[in-house]
Design goal:
The chain is mainly beta. Helices cover 1% and strands 41% of the residues. The chain has one domain: YVTN repeat-like/Quinoprotein amine dehydrogenase (Methylamine Dehydrogenase, Chain H).
């Protein structure tokens, strides 16, 4: 059985889980108690995996921590790793995303923040530089704040070309750079903006999450504020693929690490309740790029269930077969060792789960 690290960020700290020989999960923590952990990166590009954590302290403010020994010790730089330049007259509120780039850029890590900005590290996340071009984009002044705030919450990089970067902004939409972040273009054609008079604007959509296909990096999947979409041309245009789902609203979307056309969502209702449809705890999987969707619920609670899954609280590891994991606002984390066909409760009674990341470390 693969040795998997399961990292769970919650409203009150980070919990780290390892699966034992009996297939059960042993969790330790909390690390960073009383700090909200909204972002986790597990950088497996190095000999020893590096953990990166974006934690918010109500007293000390937000910071980025790193560990090179699987959480036994943590390092926080003496000066903030992510900091807005003084001329922006802006302060960091939260780090929403920590994304190790692909093999084309082995030491590059991106940080997406609230307020909506992008930072880039070239030393594995020890220090970051401000990507001024996105901040100074002429459309940024018209980005609005979603319910969770105004933020760059998703970063996707092309494994073939380090200069191709895609970000999602709530609420600004999808933006792409083909020149390493020197310039940015909105990429929202076909994505609806249901809460605005103009249904298909150039920008301003409330994109909740983007994920990249394993076999074709030009194929992207998008969970919108109403609507699930796919792009086959790296985001130039999008098509709806939500038919067959009990709701097309949700926060998260994730893809299989090796199998093309395989993606996972956790639908929730679009009304003010934001609950699983019919109060049933179900992950939905497509194996044909969104042509059809199948519910996955074996081992999940069957009684009325109220746990919603946030945008970064569903993920897959890189095992074979792939493990699938999700955490909810009930403080439960569920794990599947067979790509979602069956599930078991990994841990419960945690604080509100904000993000989940997993990787094979053995």
């Amino acid at each position: 059985m693969n040795d998997v690290l399961l990292a769970v960020g919650t409203q009150k700290g980070l919990f780290l889980g390892r699966r034992n020989s009996g297939g059960e999960w042993d969790f330790g923590g909390p690390h960073f108690p009383m700090q909200a952990v909204y972002s986790i990166g597990i950088d497996t590009r190095r000999d020893t995996p590096r953990l990166l954590v974006g934690a918010d302290s109500s007293h000390w403010g937000p910071s980025v921590f790193r560990s090179d020994d699987l959480g036994a010790n943590w390092h926080e730089p003496a000066r903030p790793a992510v900091k807005f330049p003084e001329d922006t007259d802006t302060s960091l509120e939260r780090v929403w995303q920590l994304h190790p780039a692909g093999p084309a850029a082995p030491d590059v890590v991106y940080a997406g923040t609230q307020p909506g900005a992008l930072f880039r590290s070239e030393d594995g996340g020890e220090s970051f530089t401000f990507v001024r071009s996105l901040w100074e984009h002429p459309q940024r002044a018209e980005w609005n704040a979603g319910f969770g705030g105004q933020a760059v919450h998703t970063v996707v990089t092309d494994p073939r070309n380090a200069d191709v970067v895609t970000v999602a902004v709530s609420t600004g939409g999808v933006y792409r750079s083909l020149d390493g972040g020197a310039s940015w273009t909105p990429s929202n054609t076909g994505v609806q903006c249901t809460f605005q008079p103009e249904r298909f604007p150039e920008f301003g959509q409330c994109v909740h999450k983007i994920a990249q296909d394993a076999e074709d990096p030009d194929r992207l999947y998008l969970q919108n504020h109403g609507g699930v979409y796919r792009s086959d041309d790296a985001g130039a245009k999008w098509s709806e693929i939500g038919a067959g789902l009990p709701a097309d609203f949700g926060f998260t979307i994730a893809t299989h690490p090796r199998r093309g056309g395989v993606a996972y969502v956790f639908p929730i209702t679009a009304d003010s309740h934001r609950l699983p449809p019919d109060l049933r705890c179900r992950v939905f999987r497509t194996e044909d790029g969104g042509g059809t969707w199948a519910p996955l619920s074996q081992g999940l609670p069957q009684e009325p269930h109220y746990g919603a899954v946030l945008r970064d609280a569903l993920c897959l590891d890189d095992a074979d077969p792939a493990g699938v994991y999700f955490g909810n606002r009930n403080g439960e984390v569920y794990a599947s060792a067979d790509e979602g066909d069956s599930w078991r409760l990994a841990v419960s009674h945690l604080p509100d789960v904000l993000c989940v990341r997993a990787a094979v470390i053995g």
